[in-house]
Amino acid sequence: MRKFFLEEVAKPSIALDAKVYKPYGAFEWKLPADKPARWTKPLGRNLCIFDLDNRPFEEDGMIFGQQPLSWNNATAIHGLSLGVLQHWLYAKIHGYSYYYVRTGDFEDRRASWKKPTVLKKLLLKHEACIFVDSDAIFNHLDLPFEWLLNYWDIDPKNNSLALAIDPKAEHNKDKKGKLYDNTGFIIAQNRPITFQMMDDWAECADDGGKHPECTEYRHVGWGRPSDQGGFGNFIRYDYADEVEELPCAEANGFPEDRSECIGTFIKHLWAGKQDLIKIAIGQQIPGMYLEMFHKQMLAEKSEYYLTEEQLMSPSWANAKTYLGASPLAVDPFYMAFVRIWGFSQGTGLGRTAIEEICEHPDPPRHHLFVDAPNMTGAAGGVISRPP
């Protein structure tokens, strides 16, 4: 039954560059007529989706509890756990990589400040990564994310980050009166400047930093978000040309909130974590499918579950990388190296160790490596950047 669901019920329904998405023959959304579709080949494992949390979620009714989740006991189901399960399932349907990262705590700030560091580490292995809060879901299981990248006109050469705007409300505005970008849904691309941005965001709330006032956002308060406040008041202004803002109606919110944000493609249920999310997931993963897929997710835990310690260890630096598996993963600086050394994609490099080949000219801490033993597909070598 799981195979039937993946291959028939929720299989990808349109081509990545299809001009129109019209689910059930009803409403329709069209790709920009005046823009080329840039994402035309499947990213596969080169695209990662991840959750992170400092809470164990190991009690019954939770995602890592002993008993499988079942609609027969719906009241006992932990709402946020359904969000995690849905992210894993969406990645499986479309062949993307999925990770769940169990983080530790900070002594002086909210654990959500772990987000930029975790994102940076995962992005080292992928062309693009998507962070999704556990109370946010992909509203259409059948819709490939590459199609959304085309729909939102995300440029693989320019847009380091893409985030949705928050609803129109005074408490959702930064100190300059601009609506926040919601950091509960982030699209990040593997570009040198993205890593620099993540470093700056991670350090924003440190004492003696570039933005002293950022320490005010170590913890949540009314009208004062935490990591989102640091990003919204400081980091996005430092990197204004690199941050793409997505429409709130399409990538944030939910209809029951009665705001302009209805979650057309990404439904973010900030006020429905224990009830509305059950209705949404119940419609997508009905009946016995919930229990079957939760059992499978638990059985495959070793394939996607990482602790913060594992992610920060040397073993992660040596872990498999998916960079180079997609034409979109070709870095212009890598191509310069290719010309100089006389190699090309599709040519085995014949090297047996990771060799540093050049320093990136922007911030000097960014380098490029070729890792021949871990070649993927037809790529001549795997490109990766060190932490």
Task: Give the helices and strands, then pairings.
Layout: H1 2-9, E1 20-21, E2 29-30, E3 47-53, H2 79-94, E4 97-102, H3 115-123, E5 128-132, E6 136-138, H4 145-151, E7 161-165, E8 181-189, H5 192-203, H6 227-238, E9 243-246, H7 248-251, E10 266-268, H8 276-284, H9 288-299, H10 301-304, E11 305-307, H11 308-312, H12 314-317, H13 332-341, E12 355-359, E13 367-371, E14 382-384
Parallel strand pairs: 3-4, 3-5, 4-11, 7-9
Antiparallel strand pairs: 1-2, 5-8, 6-10, 7-8, 12-13, 13-14
Helix pairs in contact: 3-5
Protein model, in words:
The protein is α/β, with parallel strands linked by helices and 387 residues long. It has 2 domains: 2-315, Alpha-Beta Complex (Spore Coat Polysaccharide Biosynthesis Protein SpsA, Chain A); 330-384, no CATH class. 29% of the residues lie in helices and 16% in strands. It contains 13 helices and 14 strands. It has helices at 2-9, 79-94, 115-123, 145-151, 192-203, 227-238, 248-251, 276-284, 288-299, 301-304, 308-312, 314-317, 332-341; strands at 20-21, 29-30, 47-53, 97-102, 128-132, 136-138, 161-165, 181-189, 243-246, 266-268, 305-307, 355-359, 367-371, 382-384. It has a 7-stranded mixed sheet, sandwiched between helices. A 3-stranded antiparallel sheet has the order 12-13-14, with no helix packed on it. It has a two-stranded antiparallel ribbon with strand order 1-2. β12 and β13 (367-371) form a beta hairpin. α3 runs antiparallel to α5. The model is unreliable at 326-387 (pLDDT under 50).
